[in-house]
Amino acid sequence: MQFTAKDIAFMLNGTVEGDPLAAVSQLAKIEEAQQGSLSFLANPKYEQYLYTTDASIVIINKSQQLTGPVKASLIRVENAYNAFTLLLEQYNTLKLNKKGIEQPSFIHTSAQIGQDAYIGAFAYISQNVKLGANCKVYPNCYIADNVTLGDNVTLFPGVTVYFDCVIGNNVIIHSGSVIGSDGFGFAPKPDGTYNKIPQIGNVIIEDDVEIGSNTTVDRATMGSTIIHKGTKLDNLVQIAHNVEIGENTVIAAQTGIAGSTKLEANVMLGGQVGIVGHISIAKGTQVQAQSGVSRPIKQEGLKWGGSPALLYGDNMRSNVVVSRLPELEKRVLELEKIITELKNK
Fold first, then answer.
1. Does 153 map to a domain?
2. What are the residue numbers of the active site?
């Protein structure tokens, strides 16, 4: 699909400098763009590429001053970054705009499929499933009994949703993720083996949540594991049974949260953070990557780091001390030698 500079300027409420009929069919970074590409310039560090790029059209700020000839047609807007982001969103919407039911796929006769849904080949929709309007279930997804999906939900290829789980509106779940697998519940027996504790709860994912690839959200032992609205989970995140994640929380890759822990709203966890079970994390808490949280955090809006996690400033000071340990050891050994010599005298 091609768009002209005139078309794009109309969408962005911008003005064209150059050929209004210059056409583009793809998006590209300004330093890599070729003929037929649309790019943008927002960061002054990349201004040099404005004069060398092969892009057919470049979006720039109205305030941008030119210091040399430009081959591309220009579209001037108030904020080039925001304008390009808007185009990315529209481009992505067009690219993912699928409808209809592909074959072979299985849809149980009791399932309810909303208007304009897309069901990809080899998807399996089990009994009593409810899909809202504009849902997209890509190939090789499995949706088990009694699952409910709201409107505008997207399950990319290979997503598995276990029985009884509830997913809200505008949720995106990326490939390979598993929603509602059993929580890690085992009771030790006197002989050293374990009894499996049945996990009979479910997972509730509220509106506007996005979950990255190969992330797992375990079902509750009883009740629900809950991901509240607006939360964003990265790839390879583990959410254990009966965990509750507060609104608009952001969790980076390879983080693990143990069972029955509660995160309040607007928490930010860096990559590879580990949190023990049965504690609470206060609203607005930020935890540095590779930190281990082993006790409740009760004060809101503070930054933490290290393992076990300390207040960020305390952790940084501790790191400085640790880096000086070889020097301090040497000084202690020297002092011990002096003390020994004094004793001998």
1. yes
2. 241
